[in-house]
Structure to design on (507 residues):
């Protein structure tokens, strides 16, 4: 008996369904459909035949693998991947470059080509193998191709170092830098690898929020893991609010609001702050040269956070030095930093000036400024101010501006502790002259009862009377230069006093 089957759209079915005559699809299916192609309209037609195009490069000597390379809808290639080479086919023929086949060298042997994984996007194909660095094959023209090492931009990376006693630092935020570590972690075969450095603690930088009131130039905020700094604010009202467009950019400056003036029914206010991108909370550098187990040169590929720039001490953080009665210079094992603030010298628990000929100048010109552990707007300490943008106050009109800081020297100095009427306090060198409202520049022992600008992270300050000045003993003090500008610092985050700049006296 002959049965007419007009449609074959069910294709081949599983042997487990051979007896399922109750299924609707059963009537349109086949047990075997060999060398036929099922049409979407229901019929079948013969598969296409094969045509000899070309022998492979090592035909008969070693195997080759064919993989597709689809550049566009109407331009496709087939890649012949063989023993350390690749050739290309298009339009039913071997692609030629002049009189020779278009060919590129590859790192994979005939035994490895079957384990090569690939992925393609437009004219670029990415190929990987567990025994070789990833490669990128690029179609540069209709009959030319290139192969290069894949240049990873952001990883993958090994797990972040869990040992907090091991610290790493960069000499700068961009360009060619030196990366140092206080432990032996680098080897010569790391050249070409990437190093990832991130801020250890972001708690000092508040998150960005819409509608924050009274933020000022120089303030730092975090959003989407990135750090931004206020470089301009809108004006025209009695107070300022941040806008509703959260900063997410990773270069340049953008506003979070329109900068217009509005009315809340009682007062006018402006909306909008300009945020300048600082960093992404982490940085990446590619190692270019090996110096030692604790030092490498590298090229920054993603800007480093300011808080990873500087020097590092040793894992233990302390050393025992034994004298012979005449030696006055001692090497410190593990010292990989030229930042003297990280290597204090004490004798019997008392801080000791490293220069035996040093003489403090409590009545002379400004030599050093504030104690290194004083806080500054932006979430860093005075000893870490070198190369950072710091918030400065003009004592003539109390206007806030931002300027680059340079730390010229760090040394032990006798110090004063001054406290304002609101409770803001600061430890500073006895050699420092402070610019007061009433008498201009005076030394600390004349400061009590006079006024200095005091304020917070937003840069909004007001004159406050200094209610007490007491002897603070000897402290490690930083000489900070911000040009001809007074800067804010304080013993607590968010409460600062603007005392002076590096200019001794303005007559």
């Amino acid at each position: 008996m002959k049965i007419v089957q007009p449609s074959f759209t069910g294709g081949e079915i599983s042997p487990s369904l051979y007896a399922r005559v109750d299924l609707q699809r059963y009537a349109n299916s086949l047990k075997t459909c060999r060398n036929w192609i099922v049409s979407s309209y229901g019929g079948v037609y013969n598969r296409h035949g094969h045509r000899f195009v070309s022998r492979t490069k090592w035909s008969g000597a070693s195997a080759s693998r064919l993989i597709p390379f689809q550049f566009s809808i109407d331009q496709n290639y087939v890649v012949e991947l063989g023993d350390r080479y690749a050739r290309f086919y298009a339009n039913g023929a071997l692609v030629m470059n002049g009189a020779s086949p278009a060919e590129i060298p590859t790192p994979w042997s005939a035994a490895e080509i079957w384990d090569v994984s690939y992925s393609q996007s437009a004219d670029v194909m990415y190929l990987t193998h567990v025994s070789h660095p990833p490669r990128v094959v690029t179609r540069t023209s209709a009959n030319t191709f290139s192969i290069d090492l894949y240049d990873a931009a952001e990883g993958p990376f090994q797990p972040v170092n869990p040992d907090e006693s091991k610290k790493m630092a960069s000499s700068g935020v961009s360009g060619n830098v030196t990366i140092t570590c206080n432990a032996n972690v680098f080897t010569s075969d790391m050249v070409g690898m990437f190093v990832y450095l991130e801020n250890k603690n972001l708690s000092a930088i508040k998150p960005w929020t819409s509608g924050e009131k009274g933020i000022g130039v120089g303030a730092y905020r975090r959003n989407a893991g990135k750090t931004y700094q206020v470089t301009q604010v809108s004006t025209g009202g009695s107070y300022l609010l941040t806008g509703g467009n959260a900063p997410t950019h990773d270069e340049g400056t953008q506003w979070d609001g329109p900068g217009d003036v509005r009315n809340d029914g009682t007062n006018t206010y402006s909306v909008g702050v300009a945020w300048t991108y600082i960093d992404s909370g982490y940085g990446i550098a590619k190692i270019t040269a090996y110096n030692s187990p604790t030092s490498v040169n590298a090229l920054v590929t993603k800007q480093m956070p300011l808080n990873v720039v500087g020097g590092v001490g040793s894992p233990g953080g302390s050393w025992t030095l034994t004298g012979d009665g005449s030696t006055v210079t001692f090497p410190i094992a593990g010292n990989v930093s030229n930042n003297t603030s990280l290597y204090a010298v004490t004798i019997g628990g008392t801080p000791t000036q490293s220069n035996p000929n040093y003489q403090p100048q409590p009545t002379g010109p400004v030599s050093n400024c504030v104690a290194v552990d004083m806080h500054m707007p932006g979430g860093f300490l005075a000893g870490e101010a070198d190369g950072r943008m710091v918030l400065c106050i003009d004592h003539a009109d109390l206007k806030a501006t931002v300027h680059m800081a340079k730390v010229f020297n760090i040394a032990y100095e006798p110090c004063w502790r001054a406290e304002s009427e609101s409770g803001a306090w600061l430890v500073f060198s006895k050699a420092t002259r402070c610019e007061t409202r009433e008498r201009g520049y005076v030394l600390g022992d004349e400061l009590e009862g006079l006024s200095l600008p005091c304020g917070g992270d937003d840069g909004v300050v007001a004159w406050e009377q200094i209610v007490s000045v007491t002897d603070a003993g000897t402290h490690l003090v930083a000489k900070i230069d911000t040009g001809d500008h007074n800067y804010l610092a304080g013993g607590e985050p968010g409460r600062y006093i603007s005392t002076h700049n590096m200019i001794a006296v303005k007559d």
The first strand starts at residue 11 and ends at 12.
